[in-house]
Amino acid sequence: MTNVLLYAVHLFLFPGLLFIVVMGLLLAGIDRKLVARMQNRVGASILQPWYDFLKCCGKETIIPRHARKGLFLGAPVACFVILISAALFIPVFGGLSMSFEGDVVVILYLLTAAGVAIIVGSAASGSPFAGVGLSREMVAMISYELPFVLVLLAVGALCGQDSAYGVTFSMDEIVRWQTENGSSLLHPAMIPAAIAMLFVIPCEIGMHPFDIAEAETEISEGTLTEYSGAPLGVFKLCHCVKMYVMTALFCALFLGGLSTGILLVDALLEVVFCIIVTFLCMTVPHAICARFKVEQVFKFYWTFVSALALISLLLVWIMR
Amino acid sequence: MILPYLGQSFKNLFSKPVTEAFPAGDPPKAAEGYRGRLHYDPELCINCGMCMRVCAPQAITREIVPLENGDQQITFTYDMTSCTFCRMCSDFCTKKAITLTDDYMIVGSAHEDFLVSGTFIKAAPPKPKFTPEQLEAMKKAAAAKKAAAAAAADGEKKPEEKAEAKGEE
Amino acid sequence: MSEFISNFPILAIMSLFLGAFITSLLGRKNAVVRNVIVFISMALALIMMLALIKPVFIEGKVIGYWLGNWAPVADWAIGIGLEVDALSLFFGLIITVAVFVSGTYSFTYMSHDDSLVNYYTLFLMLSGSVLGLVLSGDLFNMFVMIEIMTFTAVALTAFRNTYEGALEGALKYLVVGALGSSSVLIGTALIYSQLHTLNLAQITALLTNDQNIVTGIAFAFLFIGFGTKAFLFPFHPLAADAHAVAPASISLMISGVLTKCGVYGIIRLVYCLYQNIDRPFVQYLVTAFGAVSMFICVTMAFNQHNFKRLLAFHSISQVGYVITAVGLGTSLGLASGLYHAMNHTIFKGLLFLTAGAVQHMTGSLDLDELGGLSKKMPRTCILFLIGAASISGLPPFNGFGSKWMIYQAAFEKSSQTGNVFFLVVCVTALITSVLTLASFVKVAQSVFFGQLNPKFENTKEVPLAMRIPMWILAILCIVTGIFPGSVANKLLMPAVNAATNTRAYVSAMMGEAYAAAHQVVHAGAADVQLIGVYSPMSWMLLLLSITSAVCLVAVLGSPEKKKLEPVVGANVPNGPMTPGSIPVTSQSREADERELITDDLDPKYESFFSGEHAEYSQVGGSDLFWGFKKNWRHYFSFMHEWHSGILNDYALYGACSLALTLLLCVLFL
Amino acid sequence: MLQNMIDSSMKKSPWIFHINAGSCNGCDIELVSVLTPRYDAERYGFKLCGSPRQADIVVVSGPVTMQSRERLRRTLAQVPEPFCVVSLGSCPRSGNVFKGSYAIDGPLEKYVHVDVSVAGCTPKPEAIIAGLAQAAQLLEEKRKEARK
Amino acid sequence: MIIMNYIASFILVGLGIFCIATKRNLLKICIGSGLIDYGCNLLIVSVGFHDGGTAPIFAIRELTRASFFVDPVPQALTLTSIVIGACSTAMTLSLIIMIKKQYGTLKADKIRRLKG
After folding, report:
1. What is the C-alpha separation between B167 and B162, in angstroms, rounded?
2. Is D48 helix (H, G, I), strand (E, B) or coil?
3. What angle do CA D27, D30, D32 make, to 5 degrees?
4. Across residues D11-22, what is the average pLDDT?
5. Which structural domains are found in chain D, ordered by start?
6. How many domains are there within chain A?
7. Taking CB atoms and an 8 Å cutoff, what residues of chain B touch D45?
8. Mean pLDDT by 10 residues, chain A (320 residues)
9. Under an 8 A CB cutoff, do D130 and B23 touch?
10. Which of D78, D113, D147 sits opposite C571 (nearest CB)?
11. DSSP three-state, residue C105
12. Domains of chain C by residue range
């Protein structure tokens, strides 16, 4: 009975649904505030994403004629569910997670599935803007998938050195290895991988410099053109939750070793590190450079960022 | 690869944002000489109509109500929503009745709060001293007097002509 | 009953061939008799294969059957033998299921065509020969079955000869296919010249010790021969041409079944006959062929305009996955390869049947022309989504389990042996899976979603008779996806054990003493510790609980979505903008009449066109993925010329690859 | 309780959608300048969004010309309830200097009830912010009234 | 002596492949594929050869130790292979006839509608 309760708490409270949603909205609010401050203006309040979500829920939902009702309304919920289940596999510092052998690949594919949910949603809306939006979203997915995979392989290779198979695909194993011999960011071989991961995060989430899929100025909200009301609110919530998922993944992969015993301290530590990572990889590029063109995003990720990830993979290979 | 605005944005991060706290305080004063909401002073106006003629968007309408003692009650209404704030009217107004203030906060939903209007009573012109019949009579008398004077002048001119004629013969 | 079981293999093959014979005899008169005969023969073959599961998979027996009871004389195999061990039964099961589904599908799909008797005769001969190849224990018998398979497949590809390009595709397939099967023949001849036997078991026994230069050359010929049948790297344009023009049920057979025979041939060749998979050269050769065909076919598939041609290229890239996994040599590699082969037949079959359904209903397969069919054919759209999700490896479906095992096997191999080649292969595999996902997103958007082309206004849903086979495959997709663990233990492990330890294989045919005499290796049960066979049950439970939480939020959050009736008062005087209510004022000029609002539909539910009248504009087909294509334009233009479509070029590529393999085998084997 | 929170959130994050019904772009530049650091409308949650489906406040600038009439009408129809309409500058409400020309088709009032007008031939950004804030207040009342 | 057969068969196969790869006319390609088949048949027959052996016919005389046969199995294989070669040539020709009717030409580089 107790572990069912613990399971429920784990599922719905601490590293579960509530914590993820609150953290996501908090990170989005802080990110918008910091970008505003970097542009020398006051900027919206921290709770602005929460107000946006509530306001969207309050609006009327219009289902266009060409849209396919079932998929159109189902896609946002599916995307949200997939993201939450991906977030549950990431071990928070307290090490309390449902991870099992080989769940790094499951997380990778769940994030791809979340992208596919957005794509199916915009395809079901039937608008030509959404058509262009989804093709750009797919190009973004192709471009960040290569470096993302290389980084995961590098971390797997590093943390799996002494395991029987020479590689590990389990988050628990990664966190345990890091607690023993220092978080992987300290290893010199992993610095390029960390930088590559920092570059991958904004494109995965669709933050400003790489948000070719929802480019308001060019293709009027791209994938979300036909969405209004509650589905739009859920999609915006997914956007925020993805911020938390990616930053928590970064913390788990590269700062795994810093977990103290107490649960509360770990939670605070996680929040602080997520904010720092958000600032580094999302706020700074957002404030500095303008939106990339579609093929620039692809060329940037497949040449520069993949090279970084490859360097670290080979370094780990040699250092073994 | 130089990051263009990295230094500047970090400086901004820690400096005070430049945004005005407008809706908190009162609206900042507009620049000097700003052409804002129109102000119309009915007393100075002489209803010459120059402003109406010169206003491009015809934002000015006049309404004349004749009163019983011949006076006219004239109301000028300036429609701020169709005014382009070019200040032509105040330049051409000989009596300087129209001035453009620097109040730029022209925001409202009903149509009334965009209209600036002023009414004044234009006194009727003084009554003429003589009635038209008297004018007729005075005119006839003047004409008769002139005819008599002319006849007298003919009498003394004849003897001169006679002398000229003799001289020539 | 137990000794009768050993007759089942030949009975299964006979039921198909006899079915073909009887159909061409009796089937001429009316369709029902013909369909019944075809159905019976397919069902018989399927039942026999299922009956064989218990002895072969569970009890691990290897069933040997000598045709004409020509038992081996003095340790020398004379007659033709059929041998069914776990590996061949694994492929036999895939084949009979695919045949059964394709047959029931073609009852309605081919109803528009004429001379259906020929179709079904060829169809049953094709399935009979394919089953024969998989179950046969004799090398020359395999060659004969390959020839029958090639001829019937060519004839069926050109079945709709008025279809544009059908004859051309068939001719190319025949000529280069004949080249491939001739190389198999040469290989068989060379082996016979060295070992003077044709029985696979005896060859295995004899080859364990004396492998000289000639058997090396025979290996090269056999490898290229089976490679042609599996449409590996230099032969993949054949598959694209053949599938694009063949009827859908036949392209299911070609991509789902014929390629598996090529794969079976290569596995048998490398794991059982020569047992040289542990030599690094052979691993590099097989994995290189697999990886190159995997990558090139997916990039070629990326900007195709024809739906079936795109699917054809994808089926070759998935076969490339299987061959890469097989070439790794580890038992996990072979297990993931077999698992992916099974999954590939299932989801590729489903995708081809949906393509057939679209073609059956709309008559066109051009991606730039189709669009918005999900409104008219909703169930086919759902089926397509299941197939597309499982081919691109999304978690709950079967593609995910097998692809992920392949990455794990590849990466494990690279980290254990320490050479970077397998790391590159693993990364290529991951990139290919993303590109597969991208091209299926493209197909989904340009065929099913987006706006409906006015030309296909009156398309209706596919008749139920066609949808049943599709649903069978879809359910198989989901079932094998949700229980990868149990599939792995029950189906894959026996097959892997059968492939790796050949002692049982030889002793079944030639007797125990013979096998012992030739020290046939006995590798013992494969110790595959499937690290990471995730138990999706706990994961599905998690998904359900979160969905319930989210629905609660969604319902709570927007109750007024239902209550908010169109607010009339808000926007006086126009109300909810119905067109009639626009008060056209009196002084509107005659220009107004020209632009009178003729729009009868309520614009509120039109899709947003930045104000324009939302006429038909479908974003699909070739104008997707602009960014990606621009960066790869040099690669694509080169590839476009390379696939020139000329018969001679394809033959030349085949010959060059044959020459290259020969050279490598002579040098390194 | 949640409904009140949603009502209050309507005024806290109004998203703007800009329709240019043939304006001379003076007002458009002013509207965008509202989002710059100096005037920063984002303090109150204003955000320029790209599609009418996500709009709360529709800002219309320019006298409704014949060309843009049809497009204006159709885009306004595609905005989900409850939304406000703000007319920017003097053109939408009266047609400014173009009044009476053959090319424009009457004030904006003909097409939709204008909630707030910001007069001024290019009104100052502070005026626009005041107008938008007023419109945001209206949003809350509209939703309350719609819910009753 | 038997080596001549092997060389001949490989020359035949080489010629066939060369002919398929370079000749543009479809009929020549068909001849080329025929050549390959004949090359293979020659190879199979010559594989079972023992010098001094007689034809493997169990005729009037019963078997004696001395009657030394040539290996009968390849000859059986060759029979099947000849039949298959004939069948493949027949099918190729029938396809070529229909292509001539549909495309109007026999030039291989004109028949390339399926490409890219």
Report:
1. 9
2. strand
3. 110
4. 90
5. 2-147 (3.40.50.12280)
6. 1
7. none
8. 67 74 91 89 88 87 83 87 83 63 80 91 86 89 91 87 74 82 82 92 89 77 84 90 91 79 78 89 88 88 92 85
9. yes
10. D113
11. helix
12. 2-539+638-668
Mutate to test the interface with C, among D49, D78, D84, D108 (most CBs of C within 10 A): D78
Of E20, E26, E74, the CB nearest to C192: E74
Among the residues of A160-293, which ranges form H helices? 171-180, 191-205, 216-219, 230-254, 263-278, 284-288
Residue ranges per structural domain of chain E: 2-52+71-103
How many residues does the structure list for chain A? Answer: 320
Burial of A289 (0-12, 13-18, 19+ CB in 10 A): middle
Using DSSP's 3-state secondary structure scheme, residue E106 falls into: coil
Place of tokens 């957002």: A286
Pairing of strands D116-118, D84-88: parallel
Nearest CA of chain C to the CA of D38: how many Å? 30
Chains D and C are in contact, defined as 3 or more C-beta pairs closer than 8 angstroms: yes
Encoded tokens for B127: 């009554």
Q: Report pLDDT digits (tens) over D44-96.
A: 889 888 888 889 999 999 999 988 888 888 888 888 888 899 999 888 988 88
Q: Which two tokens stand for residue C621?
A: 């087909």
Quote the tokens at residue A291. 């939106």
**Total-model pTM:** 0.86
| More confident of the two residues A127 and E57 | A127
Q: What pLDDT, in 10s, does the model give residues B141-150?
A: 999 998 988 8
Chain C: give the shortest CA distance to residue E15, in Å.
12
ipTM: 0.83
List the structure tokens of C467: 């949808």
d(CA A40, CA B11): 9
Across B2-11, C240-249, E99-108, least confident range: B2-11
Q: What mean pLDDT do residues D16-40 have?
A: 89
* Token representation of residue C333: 């590699």
Within an 8 Å CB–CB cutoff, is residue C170 touching chain E? yes
- Give domain E2-52+71-103's CATH number out of 3.40.50.1100, 3.40.50.300, 1.10.287.3510, 1.10.3210.10: 1.10.287.3510
Long-range contacts of residues A33-36, Cβ cutoff 8 Å, at least 24 apart: A34/A279, A34/A283, A34/A287, A34/B13, A35/A208, A35/A283, A35/A286, A35/A287, A36/B17, A36/D40, A36/D42
Over the stretch C6-31, which tens digit does the pLDDT of each residue have? 788 888 999 999 999 999 888 788 88
Q: Which of A11-20, A181-190, C212-221, C562-571 has the lowest mean pLDDT?
A: C562-571
Residues near B2 by beta carbon (within 8 Å), at least 6 away in sequence: none
Can you tell me the mean pLDDT for B36-60?
87
C591: pLDDT confidence band, cut at 50, 70 and 90? Answer: very low
Q: With CB atoms and an 8 Å threshold, state whether C546 touches A101.
A: no
d(CA C234, CA C402): 25
Q: Side by side, which strands form the sheet with D47-48? A: B107-108, D116-118, D84-88, D57-61, D15-20, D47-48
Q: pLDDT for C54-102, tens place per residue?
A: 888 888 788 888 888 887 777 777 788 888 888 899 999 999 999 999 9
Q: What distance in Å separates the CA atoms of residue C38 and residue C19, rounded to the nearest whole number?
A: 6
Domain that holds residue A87: 2-319
Q: What are phi and psi of C278, to 5 degrees?
A: -80, -5
CA distances from E109 to A40, C209, E24, E26, E33 (A): 67, 49, 7, 10, 18
Chain D within 8 Å of B106 (Cβ-Cβ)?
Answer: yes
Q: Are B27 and A49 in contact (CB under 8 A)?
A: no
Q: Is the peptide bond before B28 cis (omega within 30 degrees of 0)?
A: no
Euclidean distance between CA atoms D81 and A61, whole angstroms: 9
